[in-house]
Amino acid sequence: MPRDGATTFRDIVGKLEVLRITCDKCGRRGQYRVDRLIARYGIDAKINEFSSDVTADCPRKIANNPYDACAAIRPDLPKVV
Fold first, then answer.
1. Contacts with 14 (C-beta within 8 Å, 6 or more apart), sequence order
2. C-alpha 39: how far from chain center
3. pTM of this prediction?
4. pLDDT digits (tens, 9 = 90+) for 55-64
5. Does residue 50 contact residue 36 with C-beta atoms inside 8 Å?
6. By the 8 A CB rule, do 51 and 24 touch?
7. Strand 29-33, strand 18-22: pairing
8. What is the per-residue DSSP string for 8-36?
9. β-bridge mates for residue 73, sequence order
10. pLDDT digits (tens, 9 = 90+) for 18-56
């Protein structure tokens, strides 16, 4: 799978045990064990693809309104990559 400069699960192995996703707009909160994510998506999968799967049912994302877009973030990711 081409990397294209994206962060992959390989980049966070040994740095994070849990990957959190939060959204201040809708209150979405979730935490996902990195080992389980790797088992499901593969170690070279892009983290953005996982994030898109998790937020696929977000009403703001579905509405596709650029003025009220989904604001889901991975707050721990910048600390480790």
1. none
2. 15
3. 0.83
4. 988 888 889 8
5. no
6. no
7. antiparallel
8. BGGGGTTT-SEEEEE-TTT--EEEEEHHH
9. 22
10. 999 999 888 889 999 999 999 999 999 999 999 989 998
The residue type found at 15 is: K
Do residues 61 and 52 lie in contact, with contact meaning Cβ atoms separated by under 8 Å?
no
- Are 51 and 74 in contact by the 8 Å Cβ rule? The answer is yes
d(CA 49, CA 52): 5
Q: Domain extents for the chain?
A: 9-80
Nearest residue to 70 (alpha-carbon basis) of 36, 57, 20: 57
Q: What is residue 3's DSSP assignment?
A: -
